[in-house]
Sequence to fold (357 residues):
Amino acid sequence: MRKRLGTFGLIGPSIAQCAVGAALAWIVAVHLLGHAHPLFAPISVLICVGLGIGQRLRRMAELVVGVSLGVGVGDLLVSWIGSGPWQLALVIALAMTIAWLLNSGQLFVSQAGSSAVLVAMLVPGTDAGGLDRMADALAGGIIGLAAVALLPASPLTIAGKHLSGVLDAFSTMLEQAAEAIEKGDADLAAEALECGRRTQTSVEEFTAALDNSEEIIKISPLRWHHRARLARYKTAALPVDLALRNARVLVRRTLAAMGEASPPPVALAEVLREVSEAALLLQLELGAGREPMLTRQALLAVAARERPKNLGFSANVIIAQLRSIAVDLLEATGMDHDEASAALTPLDEFRDESMRG
Fold:
């Protein structure tokens, strides 16, 4: 329950959109369109806004048209042939066929079919014609879209919440790998690897959250002033994904190193923790709406550190992955790739140190 309450801020605006939009759709259908029982006006709002959470504007538009099509086809047929099992089958088949011919999108087709079911089974009455109910559905859909624009969720809250999940997982993975190196504990390294294997879902959710946030800003003038801050999240998205992938490789090598005669030196654990802390700092700076300059400075300090000597094979691999992670996170702060790569210790110097060790 505490976890759900903690994420209520993400879903609360959508609930408000549904509630206010449904009431407005009823008022419009009754007082402007003159329909006594406009059931499909509020239903269309709920379908459009409720199922549109996290979807693109095109999919929300498909919902509006799909509802209207299903209502129109269903009501017109029911008024001719009545209602019953075979009529239901015919109405669904015809509504979904027409929808498929117009647009093969799965959501569009299924919405047309389900709306036809509502007409055929729930409201086969005689007090409203098919065109009236189609008008109600269209009005509800339009009001639903307006509710999304005028009562928008915070795009920065959505993007920030999901990026936090990604960076928290990244930081935890490096912390566990650092502790495994310090203690020479293969179980801790295995736990870190298992943590890393679960992170891809968080990355995909963050990508979807960015799409959703962009959509909110696109259709809601109230959120246009967030475009610059959201752009920082977009800049960080791909580099953070790459950093996470490199961290998984690093942790796999850490686990493999636990059984070697020359395990990674304890000094590497400190470097891992510094990178972990830089990732959390990136999360805080983006959430505060600042350019992540402190994060950049922390990473540049890591890149400039003198490397441990007397390294074995696995330690060299771990350092190579740390180099890649540092470049990825520097790019997440807004640096270009060449500038980020130039901040690292030159490879020739690194090789000389390894050979001397």
The two ends are 54 Å apart (CA to CA). The longest helix spans residues 227-257. The chain has a mean pLDDT of 81.
